[in-house]
């Protein structure tokens, strides 16, 4: 009973803290500043939660607001951002684009064991929007652009369905209730972990694990609590894993599922991880992808669609670091770095072609 109350209390505090962080990002009114100070003074856990989330939020507006409210707090550090260098001979673009971020808490938190044992909710993001949610067990979910996630908790399991889009899952440990994300025709069961799932199509998926392990199975495979305990120490060579035709992906590895077939697990470099998960910081990183691939990724974050008037443009190699949203900045960069001109064919259609070098 006490553990359940601790989970509920922690989750509620995180939800309140995330709401205050979001409010600080847009700017607090005088009345809100007084309400926030009162809330923080009620409990040291309130202050700890706010400062912990503020470091993850990584926005100067939030950190500056906290610095003014708590000038003696030593843990407020402005983020030291890494410089990312890149050099690809064929082309470079580095447009600074802006994506939309939201940090959202749950409106109604389960408080009794009966309520916590059964919980369901649908989370979604619009095109160009990203949002972070705290679930009742303190699991943190970050959804990328145009995503839809169904959450269903029962007494024996935590099951989520990613109907579209992409999500990062920082899973709270609960040995009695396995945590499974279903996407298309695959299931991803967390074995104490942080992982990212991208759904490109029902049979085309990507999994990146940054902490712990994740087991990939068909949705028909049900993992109970006993299986969960055994699988936590399992590898791809274990008989129990082979028996259910599963694959184990560990921290620093990536799995690609193409046409429902799980390809050989790939070990990632630090740069690979940074590139694959750059969206979690509102960025996109390209390192030698074709222009057609890059534009397809950019289009996930905007209503704008691109047409290539010259098919030869599709194979141009591009590299760069940018944020999604500012199409004007992107088009300027393509013109300057690749001599690619554009023509608007409508409000949301842009045609790209080679520039006139005459």
Task: Write a concise synopsis of the structure shown.
The protein is of the alpha+beta class and 358 residues long.
Could you explain how this protein is built, in words?
It is a single chain. The protein is an alpha+beta fold. Helices cover 30% and strands 32% of the residues. It contains ten helices and 20 strands. It has helices at 2-26, 30-42, 44-57, 60-69, 113-117, 225-231, 239-243, 270-276, 291-298, 327-338; strands at residues 100-104, 119-124, 129-134, 140-143, 148-153, 158-170, 179-183, 186-190, 194-201, 204-211, 213-217, 247-250, 253-258, 261-262, 266-267, 284-290, 305-308, 317-322, 340-346, 349-354. The strands form three sheets. It has a 15-stranded mixed beta sheet that branches. α2 packs across α3 (44-57). The model is unreliable at 1-8 and 75-109 (pLDDT under 50).
How are the elements arranged and paired?
Layout: H1 2-26, H2 30-42, H3 44-57, H4 60-69, E1 100-104, H5 113-117, E2 119-124, E3 129-134, E4 140-143, E5 148-153, E6 158-170, E7 179-183, E8 186-190, E9 194-201, E10 204-211, E11 213-217, H6 225-231, H7 239-243, E12 247-250, E13 253-258, E14 261-262, E15 266-267, H8 270-276, E16 284-290, H9 291-298, E17 305-308, E18 317-322, H10 327-338, E19 340-346, E20 349-354
Parallel strand pairs: 1-3, 6-7, 17-20
Antiparallel strand pairs: 2-5, 3-4, 4-6, 5-6, 6-9, 7-8, 8-11, 9-10, 10-13, 11-12, 13-14, 13-15, 16-18, 19-20
